[in-house]
Each structure stands twice: as C-alpha cells, then as structure tokens.
Amino acid sequence: MSFHLTSKDVRLVDNHILTASCQGPEGWHESTIDLDQFIGNRDGEFRTDIDQNFSHSADSVFLIVGQDKVTLMASLRKWDGSWNTAQNLNLSDIISNNGGNLYLADDPFFIGPP
Known about the structure:
The protein has strands spanning about 5-15, 15-25, 25-35, 40, 45, 60-65, 70-75, 85-90, 95-100, 100-105. The chain is mostly beta strands. It has a single domain (about 5-105), classed as Roll (HIV-inactivating Protein, Cyanovirin-n), CATH 2.30.60.
C-alpha cells in the first residue's frame, strides 16, 4: 500500500477521481482510480465495505497530501439531512501503486497492469 511513496502530483478530480503520476517499471505515467466505486457514505461517515458513491452526498471534498499519507477529507450528509463535517479517510491504507497503476489494495480481482 502507501501509493504516495511512489507517486507524485497526487490530486482529486471532480471530487472522486484520484489522479497521480505513478512510478512504474518504465518510468512515470498518469494513473487514475474512481474512489466512488469503493468508498461510500453511511450516515455521515466514510465506509469502504459495501457502500459506494460517497461524492453524491459530500461537500467540501479535498485531499491532504502529506509525507506519511494522503487523506481524503469531506463533509458528509447524514440520514437526517444534517452534515458531519471534517470526516477523513487515509487513502494510503487502501490504495496501492502496482507497476505504475493505482488500484484498491484489497481488490481480489486485480491481476496487474495490462
């Protein structure tokens, strides 16, 4: 995991597309992963189990890119319509760089770059 150790220019596009220049065997190239496919919002908290599409009920979404991790930050809408502010998720715990490609670290279907 810890994709950020072998990536640069880490950023978020459209509040849910993680984009980075990733180091691979043939140098650096652009890679993306759609966080909405595996991160959800359950009553104002990030969830990575069965929920999806967190960005559909999120506001003020941004990344904090540090030396030791990359953190996804957002205000997330709760079931009662109120907002749970300053929610965070350590993306370095769940995203990996494999051969220059970003992927969900626990994805049993990932077979490597094409």
